[in-house]
Amino acid sequence: MLTRQIRSYFSVNAIQNFGRVLPQAILTPVLVGKGLDFSEIILVQIAFTIATLLFEFPFGILADRTSKTLVYILSIALTLSSYTVVFLGAGFWVMCIAWVIYGASAAAQSSTLDYYFAERLRSDERALKRFYSSDQNVMLATSIMAALCSTFLYGQFGEKIYLISAFFFVLSIVLGIAFLPRDTSPEKNDEISENNASNFRAELSDGLRFALKDSRILLAVLLLAITEFAVNPFFHLWQMILLDSRFNPSIFGLFFVAFQVVNVLANYIFSRFHRHQWHNYVALGLLLLIGIVSAIIEDAAVLAAALLILPLPLFIYLGSLHTTLQSAIPSRVMSTIGSLSGTVTAVAGLLSLGLASLLMSFVSAQVTMGASLVLFSVVSAALMRKFAPKPVEVAV
Q: What CA–CA distance (Å, rounded) separates 59 from 57?
């Protein structure tokens, strides 16, 4: 039963992710065609981040109290609504509305069925790692296919590519209603009783209490948030860095696909090794080295190679943190603490975007990304060394 549910989840997730990624490779020209300049596109992204921050907790608590499947399907419906607004609308404020809806969708999806399956698999770390890696590989494989298809489809259909995405969203909603698990309540033998939280305030209190009293959870939440100082500069600045290095924009799609292939490799490597703390230090050391090289190197080929290698240690490190967090959270408050992590991460994301914007007032995008990677690596390693995770027993 569980294996069939996981396969159904992977299938629905693949379909909705294909629709979601399809327009992203050509997102900048689409927004420019809607009347936005580059600075307004950054502001639209900030609107997305703020929306994610505001909706993360409410959707996490809703998923814990009702149905993770319901909230997951709702997230796809919100993405469909966002893409519809993009297709039909134009102008800065309309695009802000679209990205606020998109941010709500991301918040709704962040702590739903992945946490439900993690709770079922938590007793077997190898099975949990296989699930996490398989989930990531499904997303990455469909992202690659969508990016390749968008190159052809955008030339043929232009902005109507959003209608193609809408078809995949509707299909995933129908299949989700038909095949995804209806009962996503915690297992009966869980350490948290069903009557422990009778309202939203009690649910939030439980999640915060466990997060604050268990050092594994607290440290994983903080470390995941700090990764925004590596993830955001990379994903928002790599195109600018390549442009400054005189790369032809026509090959940017190939870089996007290459990033996804490296991510698949990272997930494969992560799934093959037993998780140890020193693996995290090795990943952080590689990211520190890439940050230094990125900040000082002038050779375009070496810089491109550094960009292509960067996702490998970054996503191995992220996989380790996610596994640590999911294996430590009591299942009754799993989505709530997942949303706490998402909220803290969203705040860190805003800070990282602000820092990047400030740095770019004085230095190039290349130096900005390198400096952010160095800061992220040093702070993360210092936190892991000072606050080594020590499980504690929490009274219920």
A: 6
